[in-house]
From TrEMBL:
Organism: Peromyscus maniculatus bairdii (Prairie deer mouse)
The entry's keywords: Kelch repeat, Repeat
Protein name per Swiss-Prot or TrEMBL: Kelch domain-containing protein 9
Subunit description: Interacts with CCNA1.
Keyword Lipid biosynthesis: no
UniProt entry tagged with the keyword Ion transport: no
Length: 350
């Protein structure tokens, strides 16, 4: 483990990403990163720009000790542009993605207790998408996920995006897709956030951000109070810092337009978006800006915090919340080709 070199705080900036670890095993983009019991599970991804075949590695990173190790289990899926969701507090389910030759809609699962990979099978009546990549997959419960995004290749893209409910049964190691009756704008490389709703009738709604030339998020699901299991507040200190940041007057009141392959994490009532590739510029397309979507008001408010440090540009990266801190893992840097081996935490100066 080499020492982490800090990019420093840009003059006048209210935030930065502070490096806390560095390891070559973590240098990848378009991977997944999922936290379980204080460890980050990284699956697949591209190790360099222009790579034709994704990695088949599964890497476990311990943020407390700053160490990364490769999981020796056989059967780790060769994937990039996929999603991974934790179900049952045990199974890390990898949904869809690119395997080097085609887009898939299959489900592979890592049993984190035994350390073994399993290929789950489709139930009778399964109606899968044509193939998924750069999609989103959101956990609604241990048995139900909501999937939205690209299906098939670019030549088979529809003018709209479909929404699927993916039902999982970890007791039988089976899954089943069902297409919902509603559609979304055609999106790819977007992100999804399950957020609380403000107002007299509290509940939750699932929002899509980016992936097309649109500023406003799109609602693809609403649930009344009690329908979605409430998760305990995992980051009270960071939530308070974000409240002070958006109240500081330093942010621009604007949301991202034409952003894709960015990251998104839910922190209390906030969706925190970072980096990505903009669709609105022909050059210098990789971003290093921070956006915060504040759901405490109705309608919610956007806050944009630009960054002057070009070393923080990222695309195809992931953010992960643990121990009251938001971590940045992997992604390609400014050249869109070199994967970052650094792990950073979000530092707010408020």
């Amino acid at each position: 483990m080499a020492g982490a070199e800090s990019p420093g705080r840009a003059r006048g900036s209210a935030w930065t990403w502070r490096p806390v670890a560095r390891d070559a095993l973590l240098a990848r983009a378009f991977h997944s990163c999922t936290e379980l019991q204080g460890r980050f599970y990284l699956v697949g991804g591209l190790l360099e720009g222009g790579a034709k075949v994704p990695s088949s590695d599964t890497v476990i990173f311990d943020p407390a000790g700053g160490q990364a190790v490769r999981l020796p289990a056989r059967g780790s899926p060769t994937r990039s542009h996929h999603e991974a969701v934790l179900v049952g507090g045990r199974w890390l389910c990898v949904v869809g993605g690119w395997d080097g030759s085609r887009r898939l809609a299959t489900v592979a699962a890592l049993d984190t207790e035994s350390g073994a990979w399993e290929v789950w099978t489709a139930n009778p009546g399964n109606c899968p998408p044509a193939g998924l990549s750069s999609h989103t997959c959101t956990r609604l419960s241990d048995r139900e996920l909501r999937v939205s995004g690209r299906e098939g290749g670019t030549r088979t893209q529809r003018r709209y995006g479909s929404i699927y409910t993916l039902k999982l049964d970890h007791s039988t190691r089976t899954y089943c897709y069902k297409e919902e009756g509603c559609h979304t704008a055609s999106r790819s490389g977007h992100c999804a956030a399950l957020l609380p709703t403000a107002g007299p009738h509290p509940g939750h709604q699932l929002l899509l951000f980016g992936g097309c030339n649109s500023v406003e998020p799109e609602v693809i699901g609403k649930w009344s109070h009690g329908k979605i299991k409430e998760e305990p507040l995992a980051a009270p200190r960071l939530t308070e810092q974000l409240k002070r940041l958006v109240s500081s007057g330093q942010g621009l009141r604007q949301g991202p337009q034409g952003l894709r392959h960015h990251s998104c994490s839910v922190v209390g009532p906030f969706a925190v978006l970072f980096g990505g590739e903009t669709l609105t510029r022909a050059r210098d397309t990789i971003c290093n800006d921070l956006y915060i979507y504040d759901t405490r008001e109705s309608p919610p408010l956007w806050f944009h915090f630009p960054c002057a440090d070009r070393r923080l540009k990222r695309v195809g990266h992931r953010t992960c919340l643990w121990n009251d801190q938001l971590y940045l893992v992997g992604g390609f840097g400014e050249d869109g080709s070199t994967a970052s081996p650094q792990v950073c935490v979000l530092e707010l100066f408020v």
